[in-house]
Write a structure and sequence with these properties.
single chain; 326 residues; mainly alpha; Rossmann fold; 2 domains; 3-stranded parallel β-sheet; two-stranded parallel ribbon; binds tryptophan; Tryptophan--tRNA ligase; Trp-tRNA-ligase
Length: 326
């Protein structure tokens, strides 16, 4: 049984790009019989950038509701909030004391943020972000960590910290995790054609009320080919987004309409909007259910937190024993 672990950012309400690029693939992976997935909301990490409490609470709930809406099996897998399992921060401190400062100074993610914001606004939390991430992983003896390319260095740091700890005590206290980097580069275009991203404000929030969702879909950028003229579907964002959600038959159908002419971008957008509503009807309903029923959402998360703590506390006991804190 491979233990797969990944941290989920809680920096906003998940959009179609997050769902197709990360959430659905992770849920598919968790369904394979030989896998057991550990998925947690990295809400402590979000504190390095987001300081507002109510916003954080809202984002955490929306992220949790999205994963549950898309059918994550919380019985088979473990799903929790990092902040509710204090062993994450405890282990992070121990690991801090085994992490060379130059290694952190060399982290690309840190250097990029400092370059953007200036050294003055870089907190110690931002600096030690990779150590908390290492703690997240090592706490659960994870074998495989599926992450994006930008996280490759953080995984290398995790392995370095773990192996120098193991080496120092001549013990196998920590399991060395492997990164699984998805190279297939599933980039979902946003409504302006750039990569769909919260920071570009070009995302499609599939959980919006129907009329607001339609307004967003109507804003998808298209060229000025007249209604009557045939159109090239492969150059059009609406068609690209439609293709990511529709069945093969529906895609072939829309392709024919583009190429035949007398089919406008407005028509295509209406079809895309209708498809989103139709295709994600269950998910939209479940998302709203969890957003409206905080008790149900809490029950799921707290059950996950209990499972996570049972494992985390065993690892911490092992570490305390090694360090003489027991
Ligand atoms: N840093 C990761 C990201 O930005 C999120 C994360 C936190 C994570 N802890 C983790 C990912 C542990 C994998 C394993 O996406």
């Amino acid at each position: 049984m491979a233990r797969i672990l990944t941290g989920i950012q809680s920096s906003g309400r998940p959009h179609l790009g997050n769902i197709l690029g990360a959430i659905k693939p992770a849920i598919d992976l968790s369904k394979q019989p030989d896998n057991e997935s550990f998925l947690f909301i990295a809400d402590l990490h979000s504190l390095t950038s987001l300081k507002d409490g109510p916003t954080r609470r809202e984002y955490i709930r929306a992220v949790a509701a999205t994963w549950l809406a898309f059918g994550l099996d919380t019985q088979k897998n473990t799903f929790w909030r990092q902040s509710r399992v204090p062993e994450h921060t405890e282990l992070a401190w121990y690991l801090d004391c085994f992490t060379p400062v130059p290694m952190l100074q060399n982290a690309t993610s840190y250097k990029d943020k400092v370059a953007k914001l200036g050294e003055q606004s870089a907190s110690a939390g931002l600096f030690t972000y990779p150590v908390l991430q290492a703690a997240d992983i090592l706490l659960y003896d994870a074998n495989i960590v599926p992450v994006g390319k930008d996280q490759r260095q953080h995984l290398e740091m995790t392995r370095d910290i773990a192996s120098s700890f193991n080496h120092q005590y001549s013990e196998e206290v920590f399991v060395l995790p492997e990164a699984r980097i998805d190279e297939r580069l599933m980039t979902i275009p946003g409504i302006d054609g750039q990569k769909m991203s919260k920071s570009y404000n070009n995302y499609v929030d599939i959980f919006l009320p129907a009329n607001e969702l339609y307004k967003v879909v109507k804003k998808i950028v298209s060229d000025s080919t007249p209604l009557e003229a045939p159109k090239n579907p492969d150059k059009d964002i609406t068609f690209q987004l439609y293709s990511l959600i529709a069945s093969d038959e529906q895609v072939a159908d829309m392709r024919r309409k583009y190429e035949a002419g007398n089919y406008g971008y407005g028509h295509a957008k209406k079809e895309l909007y209708e498809l989103i509503i139709d295709r994600f009807a269950t998910e939209r309903e479940r998302f709203n259910y969890y957003m409206d029923n905080n008790d149900a959402l809490e029950a799921e998360l707290q059950a996950g937190e209990e499972k996570a703590r049972a494992i985390a506390s065993r690892t911490i006991a092992r570490v305390r024993e090694t360090l003489g804190f027991n």
